[in-house]
Design goal:
This protein is of the alpha+beta class. 27% of the residues lie in helices and 34% in strands. The chain has one domain: Aminopeptidase, CATH 3.40.630. It has helices at residues 26-39, 55-67, 115-128, 145-153; strands spanning 6-9, 15-19, 71-78, 81-90, 99-106, 135-141, 157-167, 173-182. The protein has an 8-stranded mixed β-sheet with strand order 1-2-3-4-5-6-8-7, sandwiched between helices. β3 (71-78) and β4 (81-90) form a beta hairpin. α1 packs across α2 (55-67). It starts with 5 loop residues before the first strand and ends with a strand.
């Protein structure tokens, strides 16, 4: 689903824009996903899992997301560089269409600049425009205190845990927590 461009300023004063990734963004998006996978253990994929994933694959994914009726993908660009992404997916079967799932990631050098907050505010706004949506859900990995703090600030609450859902390369097992934000209806 397409969105309008949303310009805003980072906490340090730099200009940023939220928008759908475009056809020409495949290379920047691929660089971004590989970089963020290297920067933190709080994403599901390891860097080497992107090996073999091509620019063509990414371009197809972006086109599919932008054409989808039940998904929105937005990227945050600073000086033309992709530094964050956020997605929301709306359920489309009768028994679950009251739910939406959101996910986000921001390059570590931009943590604390307000990007995650701005992206989530926009996704919440988009969800609120759909009358049938009653709650937004997300998951975070144990230890992601910055993410958890952001989500709680925006009204998400922990409602469940998947014990040992993540296994790091060194064998460490981490829990995954489910959070829900109920929309005011």
């Amino acid at each position: 689903m397409k969105i309008e461009e949303i310009p805003f300023r980072l906490k340090d004063g730099r200009k940023a824009v939220l928008r759908n990734p475009r056809d020409g963004d495949a290379e920047g998006m691929l660089e971004y996903v590989k970089a963020t996978a290297e920067e933190t253990v709080f994403l599901l994929r390891e860097p080497e899992e992107w090996d073999g994933y091509t620019l063509e694959d990414e371009a197809k994914l972006l086109a599919r997301k932008n054409d989808a009726e039940n998904e929105v993908m937005m990227a945050c660009l600073v000086d033309g560089r992709i530094v964050g992404t956020c997605e929301i997916a709306f359920k489309n079967i009768m028994k679950t269409r009251h739910r939406a799932e959101v996910a986000l990631a921001v390059r570590s050098e931009f943590w604390g600049q307000g990007i995650g907050t701005k992206m989530l505010h926009e996704m919440i706004r988009i969800a609120e425009e759909r009358e049938e949506v009653l709650q937004i859900e997300l998951e975070f990995i144990e230890g992601n205190t910055k993410g958890r703090s952001l989500y709680e600030r925006l009204g998400f609450r922990i409602v469940g845990v998947q014990p040992n859902a993540i296994r790091l390369k060194d064998g460490t097992l981490l829990n995954v927590y489910l959070m829900i934000k109920k929309l005011d209806r």
